[in-house]
Amino acid sequence: MNLDAIKKEIFVSCPFDLLKKKYLKKIIEEGINPEIGLNGTVLDDYTFRDFKDVFKELDSSMVRCTIHAPFTDVSIGAIDKRIRAVSIDRLKMAMDIAVLFDAVDMVFHSGWERKIYADVTDKWLDNATDSLFEICEYAKGSNIRIMLENVFELGPSLHLELFSRVDHEVLGFCLDAGHVYAFSDTELNKWIETLGDKIGHLHLHDNKGSEDDHLAPGDGIIDFDMIFSWLSKRGIRPVFTLEAHDEESVIPGLMAIGKLIDKYYK
Fold first, then answer.
1. Quick one: which of 19, 49, 50 has its CA closest to 33?
2. Torsion angle of alpha carbons 124, 89, 32, 63, nearest 10°?
3. d(Cα 142, Cα 137) in Å, to the nearest integer?
4. What is the pLDDT of residue 206?
């Protein structure tokens, strides 16, 4: 696959504020499909009209997108019911924007952190179950799937429990192998064996095994061949997103992922 073909297969993460202020023209010119991030104060800093204007430009250029929902301070299982209500509201707002952009899917985080919720995990799970079902029902009928991503979870058991409790048609799993290597105490193969049939999206970036470095795939130690081989053998072709945190990593990252797609899906 040449670079132009690769760009059609892969999304590239880009926060909405940077997209609007700096990268929109370049993304359109290069034919890059963005995963639009809505984190931080984006939902308050911009109006629906701002989002609509950006969508019109992307749509007219035939560029597709995915949406990454807000995640800072968001916890679907929050013990404080008012915090949980705000978390649900933020995710619903993100879904409204995903519908506006006719997004392929929307990725979001659970918000679980061991240091905060370890002693109240059962209560957190009960709350998260209710939240997750409400969000799934909100997304139902939009033709947009929602993908629950792993971040600080130590292993796949929390996701497995949530998926067993909320077996919903719109819900899938976004595997972030970089987060597995940086934050989990469970081997990557265990994550894949446990949740592989739920994988609908991959966040692709590399690291050295201790920090969430967001390097281009191939610049760290993550076994991407194992991921792609496992999925392709089972006929699972997820959405691919390159999560590069600097502009210089985008092209090398795209080329690296393109080689994996060529190797396992062509």
1. 19
2. 130
3. 10
4. 97
C-alpha span between 20 and 7 (Å, rounded): 20
- 247's CB contacts (< 8 A; 6+ apart) are none
Query: For 97-123, how does the pLDDT look when each residue is reduced to its tens digit (9 = 90+)?
Result: 999 999 999 999 999 999 999 999 999
If you compute the radius of gyration of the chain from its CA atoms, what whole number of angstroms results? 18
Q: Is the pTM of this model over 0.90?
A: yes
Instruction: Write down the CATH superfamily of domain 3-265.
Output: Divalent-metal-dependent TIM barrel enzymes (3.20.20.150)
Whether 245 has a pLDDT exceeding 90, the answer reads no
pLDDT for 117: 97
Distances (CA, A) of 180 to 49, 117, 237: 37, 19, 20
Instruction: List the domain boundaries for the chain.
Output: 3-265
